[in-house]
Design a protein that fits this description.
This protein is an all-alpha fold. It is about 75% helix and about 0% strand. The protein has a two-stranded antiparallel sheet. α1 packs antiparallel against α2. The longest helix has 29 residues.
Length: about 270
């Protein structure tokens, strides 16, 4: 039986993740992975396993927020389904393959890669530089390849792919709002595929006694999913009221501190 104090931590993390997801339009994985790594270590889980478990658990928790986000954007006709259909096969292939690469790697290189990627995302938030739309939409082969790359990186750092998909689509002369909506739709198959990959790749670590399915820790997924789902709309509402530009810079610094904490925990 999981302790009530750990369950409370997961519920609290879900509240924070959901609020930030709504406020900044992120999937939440970039917050969950370092936070879950620290919590799993505190729970006494093996250090060599915690990063993989954090990645798989985070990817699984993103499914609910991705679905909610996709529905909201689709209701406003903000999803370009032709692009989704063209990119999803590449997304699925890249995501699924990368989960096995992640399972093969040790915790330290994974933590280092995650920290560098987080620093990149944080820097983008601080600079807030928008990519210049300089070309037309790629053909099916180009979108498939783009999806494969986005899926691979997203699986390795356990994100919904928005921080990569949105700039990629804007670069191809797609309106920002449509790019965000399309990215949200792509995030659902990405998170489902990533979850299946982390379950299969980590199957030897499955323990129903410890509520662990592959590299997915089920109590965390349930608690985070419930609270993040209900908190995301509140963050989205406040995005129109709060000074988001300033908050993004503060949030970026928080991301850097979280990733550094993750590295120190592994060390």
């Amino acid at each position: 039986m999981i302790g009530i104090e750990w369950l409370a931590l997961y519920l609290g993390l879900g509240i924070f993740v959901g609020f930030m997801a709504g406020l900044f339009g992120i999937g939440g994985g970039i917050i969950m992975v370092p936070a879950l790594t620290a919590i799993f270590i505190a729970q006494g889980m093996p250090v060599e396993e915690v990063v993989h478990l954090a990645l798989g658990t985070s990817m699984s928790a993103i499914i609910v927020t991705s679905f909610a986000s996709m529905r909201a954007h689709n209701a406003k006709e903000g999803v370009l389904w032709d692009i989704v259909k063209a990119m999803v096969p590449g997304i699925i292939l890249g995501t699924f393959a990368a989960t096995f690469v992640a399972a093969y790697l040790k915790s330290m290189p994974l933590a280092v890669f995650f920290s560098f990627f987080t620093a990149y995302v944080a820097l983008q938030m601080i600079i807030d530089k928008k990519p210049k739309p300089t070309r037309q939409i790629s053909g099916k082969k180009g979108l498939f390849f783009g999806g494969s790359v986005i899926g691979s990186i997203s699986a390795l750092v356990s994100i919904g792919g928005g921080s990569l998909t949105v700039p990629y689509l804007v670069w191809q002369n797609i309106d920002l709002k449509k790019a965000i909506g399309t990215s949200a739709a792509i995030g659902l198959p990405l998170s489902i595929t990533g979850t299946l990959g982390y379950i299969i790749a980590g199957w030897d670590h499955t323990s129903m006694e410890n509520y662990q399915l592959g590299f997915v820790y089920l109590p965390s997924v349930a608690a985070i999913s419930v609270t993040s789902f209900f908190m995301a709309p509140y963050g989205a509402k406040l995005a129109h009221v709060l000074p988001v530009a300033i908050l993004k810079k503060v949030f970026a610094l928080l991301l850097i501190m979280l990733s550094m904490k993750m590295l120190l925990s592994i060390l």
